[in-house]
Predict the structure.
Amino acid sequence: MSGSLNLTNDFVVKFANVNGSGSASANSMFAKSVLRMGVPVAARNIFPSNIQGLPTWYEVRVTGDGHLGRRGGVDLMVAMNPQTWDRDIAEIESGGYLFYDSTKVLPESKFRDDITVVGVPLTRICNEVYSVPRERQLFKNIIYVGALAALLGIEIEVIETLLAEQFAGKERLIKANVDALHMGRDYVRTNLTPLGLQVRRADAVGDRIYVEGNSAAALGAVYGGATVCAWYPITPSTSVVEAFTDYCAEFRIDAETGQAKYAIVQAEDEIASIGIVIGAGWNGARAFTATSGPGISLMTEFIGLSYFAEIPAVIMDVQRGGPSTGMPTRTQQADLISAAYAGHGDTKHPMLLPQDPGECFEMGALAFDLSDRLQTTVFVMLDLDIGMNEWLTEPFKWDDTRSLDRGKVMTYEDLESGVDFGRYKDVDGDGIPYRTYPGVHPSKGAYFTRGTSRNPYARYSEEGHVYVDNMQRLLRKFETAKSLIPAPELRKSKTATRTGVIYFGSTTPAMHEALEILASKGLHLDALRVRGFPFSDEVYDFIAAHDRVFVVEQNRDAQLRTLIVNEGDVDPAKLPPVLHFDGTPITARFIAAEIGTRLGATAPRSPVPEAAE
Amino acid sequence: MTLFLSERVRRGGRDLDLPGREEARANIHVGIDWLSSVSFGHINKIGRRVIVLGGGNTAMDCCRTSRRLGGEDVKVVVRSGFEEMKASPWEKEDALHEDIPILNFRVPKSFTHENGKLTGVVFEVVEAQYDDKGRRRLMPSGEPDEHYPCDDVLVAVGQENAFPWIERDIGLDFDEWGMPKVDEVTFQSTRPGVFFGGDAAFGPKNIIWAVAQGHDAAVSIHRYCQGEDVNDRPPPGFSLTSQKMGIHEWSYDNDVSNDARFRVPQRDKGESLKDVRLEVELGFDPKLGFAEAQRCLNCDVQTVFAEPLCIECDACVDICPVDCITFTEDGEEEDLRGRLNAPSLHLDQDLLVSNKLKTGRVMVKDEDVCLHCGLCAERCPTGAWDMQRFTLEMTHATAMTGGGACQAR
Amino acid sequence: MTYLAKPRLHHPSLSPNDLGFTRRDYEGSVSTLCAGCGHDSISAAIIQACYDLNLPPHRLAKLSGIGCSSKTPDYFLGASHGFNTVHGRMPSVLTGANLANRELIYLGVSGDGDSASIGLGQFAHAIRRGVNMTYIVENNGVYGLTKGQFSATSDKGSKSKRGVENHESAIDLVSLALQLGATFVARSFSGDKAQLAPLIRAALAHKGAAFIDCVSPCVQFNNHSGSTKSYDYVREHNEAVNRLDVIAKRAPIEVDYAPGTTTTVTQHDGSVLALHKLAAHYDPTDRIAAMTYLAQRQALGEVVTGLLYVDPEASDLHDSLETVSTPLTALGGKDLIPGSSVLAKINADLR
Ligand SMILES: Cc1ncc(C[n+]2csc(CCOP(=O)(O)OP(=O)(O)O)c2C)c(N)n1
Ligand code: SF4
Ligand code: SF4
Ligand code: SF4
Ligand SMILES: [Mg+2]
């Protein structure tokens, strides 16, 4: 029909499925096949807190220009779930396409007339070939991938290769899958014509890798030298530990004895998890836990202990929608304040804010150096969007000359040489004292660790000035942290501007795309991506250098902005918040519209309703 | 009639009748006489090389005085070993400090002389041997005799208490050393009505003993005069007063000092050797004196135990730095001593054994090692231990109207 | 309490152990607990046990939660690293410390509030994981540090100092530990060091989760009549099933025990536990029987003490996790970082 979208290497396909139907791996294969054709994709799972039966979506943005954020809108809906049919159909862009299982005849009213409807009788094809119900279910997914490949111009050989890789060594399975794939393709070839949406081979992927942030962070922990991991299952952090377990099983087994050079304990709760981490950190091991908001809430007493008794710990917080159980399978950046200030009394903790899986790896490793160096809890703040979705990201890099920075630790020899050891003594003026590992020396260096006030020699004291000195030193240490936290990244606008924007984490790709959209409308902004907390002076210099600085984040209460205002001398009025918190990843369209409106320009396109589910 | 003899009567100390004594008599002096001559100003110099024979405090006085009267090469030669010497340790230290060597295990054999002038002393070298009963005897070591040249000898061996003027047939018995036999409690000799005290009774001690013995003898004399049994004496009195001030504060200084003895500051050696009348010890200044006083173990403060209060919580046992408290089944003393938390090393020191406690056990405390630190009482939740100052009230002889008995206090 | 430091002066016969340390060398800072608190006696027993065991103080790590009892690690083993963690959470910290360095000896000290009330979960899980540790609960039936509220081990029907009766059932940590699979379970009394010190010594030498419930009267808040954790009550109701002698490895067993009176158990480290039976037919290696016996005796109001159960073949959490014998803390970058070439392969797999 006329008015149909004609887009090459720049469209959004959304799969609407039923949780537990085995669609995830087929959908992921679909995304990967586009990648293998040299065309970047950004794919996101939108799934319920449920094991089977509830609706789940998978959104693939085919983006030749490499915009990895969520765009918003759907150009092709693969509608496989009758339960969400109506809203799925409603979500399709005008001129877009609907792909559905046409086995069952549906009334006219179920469709829209401004879209192209493509029906493939998937169930019928399946039922003709397979008799086992589970096979019918699984191969139906592969059949639609085959059909889509034919409709969108995806090279079938690419998918065949992917299948061969996935089922390497299981020839029978490969064959069965390839057969199913061909069934879909052949049906389209015989009965239908290609759509206006087309994938064309390109060279825009480069050497980038395609990986989930949780795996990347777990691999970071392996490279960061973590040996002890304690955890309690919670979405969306569980796969961090699953990946860590897998990587350890591969890379951390002693070749001679077959024994493990790591210890992973599934604790009884998050309190025990962080307790185990702190115990291990106290004793000299690198230890971490992975959790999400509810876990952080439970851990706060221990985090305060780590702060005050100065014990290294790493927490990977894969943020999800709060408060309370909130939206357990949706994304948000809403733990910033609870992590930054976790614990009663005056406490604050360094945080690392990765933008993508590449940085999850980097910061996942760095966090251990920092926590040893700063002798405190360091947070790596992932979110569900980065953590549980595969992202196209720069390949992991490792400098083999890099060694584990264990920070200020007194060895047997140091103690033997007669240095004056005071566990909480600031010898170097950077607020960081020396520590000893238990058992290091028969007669020197032992001390009693406690969360109670004590003097520089770790002896209990509730004298006012002793307490104040110690608290001031902790502040000095936090100052020192500023120089160790990765510096913010500045994107200067090509045109000089007095307007800026600050953002972080998974907002990054959408933000970058939004900047382009805004620039095309003549709205120029300098952009600063903060990469950690505490904020270095560059953040405040940036704010000072602009009249207005938008702070874009994915929570209701402008938590990053609160931290910025709280930690520096900034007039809050200068920092208009741009907030997105419906649980779906923020989109370029949303940011551009928000900032565009506030800067007085017409939005490039009216905002589409977010996340119809 | 009663007679109380207390004067320190002495016949100048013993002489040494060895070969050469007569020939060299001009340069052989009896130490104690020589010292008094010095003290009275009759003697003001001595030869360059001096040998002092003897190991008591008189010998120490002799050698150090010699150093002040021109003796440059002064030595002390003693029969016994260094440890067994009768001189007080600090006197020995002081002598050594004044460059006076002390040669032990040497028994003088003869004086050598030439032309009627002393030239030196020959010594036999001996060694200590112990018989089955552990008694020490000095036996020749077999080494060749030694000869030490000298200009003067001071003989400071064993002073004798002798009572040449007491006739030996008056019912007053003397021992083999020529000392009267005296009852240690009553100070009465074997002849009723004759009492001895001070040096005259048991040989040289110090003035404190002399005063105490005087008191006791006075009681005896009083009773004797009243025609009463001297052995039937009123015991001394005492009082105990709690020292508790607050929950962990005591009205005595209970913090045990870990300091070793402080040395009394001394005058510079060069200076003090020039003048026999100069005091060598300068005495403590207030600060040092205080620090030394802190070392006092407060023997006058006693741990007093009250059985009914004790809940047997072990707190006192756990805190006692010297492990002197034990809760155990009751038993005979010897058996009890074998079951203490720390062995009792001095059997002559009493154990404090409580009455039976609630569990049937007893509390046993070895008083020997107690530091009087009061920690047991501080840790005791019920006040079963208390630190109480003990004041001894001696029995004084006082004539009582009418009665004639001795009054205590 | 006392504020003066305990004098360094000691009994002249105080003798060093094989390592050259005297018992006094195992002491810590001076206790700040109430005079007569049972917890101080347990500290003294720990000191005795470590001395007897010839334990190098720096090879032991002492951990505790919060409470009067949890303060005590400051008062013994001054040369050991210690960690006073948060209320009820010592077990997890100890577990982490143990995972990090399996070569140290771990001593956890806790209170009944710390372990049976707020920390019951962590207590249970550390035990069921088989963490190699000695876990002592200084059980006084009250929260001492917060001034005498009932804890979860207060017996039903027992009375507070103010005369209020406790209507809640008591948690018996010993039964719980047995049920949870602790491989060394004992109960003792702070007022019976002769029983307690050898138990601690044996527990420290035990490989696996060793638990000692030590009744420890709170003289301040729970030593009145009507209390079931008072000195008097425990003394009256104490039923010891056995007396323990620990014979160091290598030391020949010289004592000839009359047959049937003594059971010997050889522990993992070679030390021998000689258990002199006080209760006929009590077999400390039979877990089910121990649980039954305890239940029967407890029903009669008795406080059963002694070494109640020991599994000399016990294994620990490191065995289950199959960790390397080198402490994880001792592993460096070479052991832990797969390096850039491995990373290149991982990258390739992710394209
Ligand atoms: C999270 C938390 N809640 C409450 C407290 C207050 N608190 C300190 S000690 C204690 C009870 C300790 O009881 P127990 O473990 O039996 O020790 P005890 O003092 O009797 O030896 C409580 C409730 C705390 N420190 N932390
Ligand atoms: S006073 Fe000191 S040394 Fe004497 S028994 Fe008491 S605690 Fe021990
Ligand atoms: S501290 Fe007091 S109550 Fe406790 S055992 Fe000693 S004397 Fe008895
Ligand atoms: S309150 Fe009770 S438990 Fe706490 S120190 Fe005092 S006696 Fe001990
Ligand atoms: Mg308690």
